[in-house]
Structures are given as structure tokens and as C-alpha cells.
Amino acid sequence: MTTPMRVGVCYALLATLFLPLAADNFDLPRQLALGVFGLWLLRTASTPSRLLAWAAVASVVAALVCTLTSASVVMSLPAFVLIVTYAAWAMVASPFAPRPLLIAAWPIAVYAFLQRLGLDPVAWNAHATWNGEVRPFSTLGHPGQLAGWLAVVLPFALDEWVAQSQRRRLFAIASTLVIVFTLLITLSRAGWLATLAGAAVWATFQWRVWTRQRTVVTTVTVLIIMVASLELEWVRTRVQSFFVIPTRWQLAESAMSAFIEHPWLGFGLDTFTLVSQRHGNPNFWTYEWGATPQHAHALLPQVAATMGTLGLLVLVVFAVLIARSLARHLGQPSVPPAVIGATAAFIVGALLFFHGVATTALGIGCIAQLLQRDNAPAKLPHWKQVSSLALALVILVSASWLSASIAARRAMELKPAAAASPWFTWAERFDPLNARWSALKGAAFESEARAGNATSLQPARTAFERARNVEPRIAQYWANLGRVAATAGDTENALSAFQQAVLLAPGNARVQLDFAEALLRMGRLEEADKQLPGLVAQWPSWGPAWWALAVLRSRQGRQVEERAALEAALRSEWYDWPAGADVARTRLDALRAAEAHLPERAP
Asked: Is CATH 3.40.50.300 what the domain over 414-596 is classified as, yes or no?
């Protein structure tokens, strides 16, 4: 088997067999572990160009500096490992064979159609919706990441159209139609733009061999698909809202505020969670309720906020190298036009949303192919052994993270919390620098404590304390600790924890509501009264906030205002507490019944 075919087969296995395990809930450890395993399969003995080698080294050095100076080194480490992996991959990247990539697209597309029809056999923890319907994400974890992968693969399908073999051409045509239809049902506007960019660039470099007949067939096919898709309501509404992207602008504003605060090295590699805590736009929750963004959803604001000017300079270096390469290929392409088109789709996609491991591996491989043909080979001593050693070390680290993720997933399936606790403990041991496992463990025990099991309160507090100690910059970990301390009657520690949480995330409404509810439990009504009116004024459509205000008014004996708060609560949304609407309705009915039985005042 030739090297391109071997690389393509390995990549197809990665995309179709391994990534379904990593698709759930954007789990970076699993994506990283499985992605690195796939990259290990793809490694070859190709020789990088001198400029590519130095660009890869510059990326690693910049990532290392931004990790060591990060506001949270613990949060930056996984991303640093990922960048080392990508740099090593760029140094050993080999051409991709189109056929295996197209074969991989079929099961991915079939799975996406099953999800669109509501026939997905797996109950995922999270998914994106549009107008109440699930947007397919197949094995890539998110509709945008699925669309990004398909956008990068599409030029390879188009390249096969010019093949001499009629059989290969028919397969390419069928694959192209499947890819385009799957792209449509992802409802990813950024993915559509990346697709158009990749196809246009591919056509620019392929015009010499693309006959008039094929051009007509392609144009008519695309027009038929576009017109047919507009008959689908869920696609039409998405197209109509094409330029309505308030959340992207809000994330960009947060990133710019972070860049102004730390212009040289940013907040730290992959610390956008801290950025959104400190500089997040409160209106973001209007569109994505209760979410704390972990990514700016676009490369430039992400790098500006987390790596500052240093990271932007590295991007400029790569931009110059790629532009020079494309200019040279305009005369006589020395790489397949599919590689050039796929590179364009990858870059445009990165500027509009975030790619997953599979797409990034493919995109970096294409960029490496562009740059390897233009410059002298790198004369780096033992670079092959070093890059292989780097991948091997990353495999060991990511395997530990993968084990932790699997153990935690098992723990989340078990009841009661005492039965799940050993599995969470294993997750903490495999991945001791990840506070998420302790936070999940604490949440399991806290849920039982709320249900009346008082013995679960102390294990919840212990787990939350560990999460806070591992990652003290996350406001929600402080709020978790303050919540259980308030329930346990530890007023001093509860107030201290919540004050720190509000300091870290001054605009986080959920932290503020947790603080106000803790004040109610501790009987500090005056302090709660200073917070809740402002909270409902900021979020007038948030039912839980109105419910907390109603509880406050009830304890103050102000029944008229309590009733008004309950009526407002029932007109509001209950995203994160659906059962709360029934609780509020029951309380309002009781108030009305009591008012109906009041004796009339004597004349």
C-alpha cells in the first residue's frame, strides 16, 4: 500500500471508528487521546521544509511561553500538549489519498442523517438545536465541527471528478452529493462559508483540466441542491438569519477587552473561560442560556485573548508562508488542487469557528504539504526521532486523560453517589490536574444532600474543596463551595467563598443567584434584598431569579410583592430548573386560595 493510501486509510479509521467515543460533550481529553493515536498511525518519514520546521518550533515556543505565564497553568497544559502534537504532526505529515477520505465521509454522513431523523441510538449529554430540532453532529462532537470537516474533505471529492476512470468519477459524484447534503443539514453558516471558499479556491487552481461540460454539470447540480434545500423550513430560516450572529460579536468583544488588559501574552493558552468570566457580555445568555464560553469560536479573537501579540505574530508568520506558497502554485501547482482548496476551507473555517481534532489534523497536513514543496529540506539533527518521541510522550499523557474521562463517565451513570465515588477517585488519580472530576463528584453528593441525605453534605464539600484547590480561578468552583457551606451553616466560609466567586465573575448571573439563595438559607434577608432586585432587573425573563425574590418577599411578610414575583416567574423561562415552574405555580395557587378565604372587613 502506498504512503498516501496508508495515511488515508488510517485517517478514515480515525474519523469513523475512534471519534464517536470522543464526540460526547466536547470532551477535550478524549478527543486529544484518540486524535493523538490517529496521528501516530499517520506518521511517516517525510522531510519538512526549513521554514515549516522553524514555524512549527515557533508555535511550540510561543505556546510554552503563554503556558508558563498563564493565569492558570493547569488550564493551559492540555492545549500546550495539543500544540506540541500538531507541531510534531506537521513535521511528519504526508499526502492524503482522496479515496479513503471519501469512504470515511459516508458513514459520517449516514450517522448525521440518522440524527436528523431522530434515530440516533446514543443518548448524548449535550447537543445543539435550531428551532427546537437537533442539528446533526455525527461523530465530530458539534454541528460546526462536522461542517468544518466536510468542508475540508469536499475539495478531495471534487478532485476525483477529473479522474480518468469512469468508476472513480461516479463514486466522486455520489460522495460530493452526500457531503453537500450533510453540510446543509448541519445548519452551520460558518461551515457553508468555509465550503464555498474551499470550492472556489479549488476551482481557481483546477481550471486547466476542468472542462466546460463538467463545469455545467457541477453548476447545475449545485443550483439544484441549493433550490431544493430552500424548500426545507429549517434550512430556509437558517439562511434568513445568516448575518445574525450576536454571540460571535459578544465573544469578540470579550476577547478584545482581554487583549487590552493583557496585550503581550494574553490571559494564557486556552484560558478563554477566565476571559469570559471577567469580560463576558451579560447578553450572551440571551442566546446561549447559562453557558460559560470556553472558546471565542474564531481563531483571531481566541489567540488575541489567550496568547496576545506573541500568538498573533506566529499567525502572521504562517499567513506569510501560506500566501507565498499559494502565489507560487498559481503558475504551476506542484500539489493537488484539492490540497490547496482544503487548506483554504480549513483557514476560513478557523477564522469563523473552532475545528476539532480530526479537522485540524487534516488541515495541518494540507498546510504542511503546501510548504514542504517550496523550500529547502530542514537540516535538523535527529528531528524524526524527536518528533516521534514527542508523539509517544503525548500518547502516554493523553492515555491517562482518556482513562480519567472513561472513569468519570462510568461514575456519572451510577447511583447513589457513594457507588460512583470510587470511579470519580480513579478519574482524579489518572488526571490530578483536572478539577472537573472533583466538581462532578461534589455535584453528585450535593444532589443527594438536597434530597434529604444529610450524610452526603460533607463528601460534597470535600470534593468541591479539592476542585477549588486544583483550579482556584474558576468562579463556579468557589460558588459550589459557598453553597454547601451555607447549607451546613458555616456562614463565615460561605460568605468568603461567594465573595471570591463574585470577584472572579462579576457578571455571572448564576453565581449571583447562588449567593442570594445562600443568603436566604442563612437568614441574611437584608443582604439578599440588596442583590435579588438587581438580578431580576438584569434578567427579567429568568424564572429562578423571580422565584428567589418571591421566597425573600414571603419571609419578609410582603405577600403582595410575593404574588407579583410569582406571577412574573410564571411568565419567564426556566431553562436550568424546569420543575421550578410547577413549584411557583403551586405557591401562587396557595396564595390565591388564602386570599379567597379572607374575611371581609367590617364596614
From this structure: no
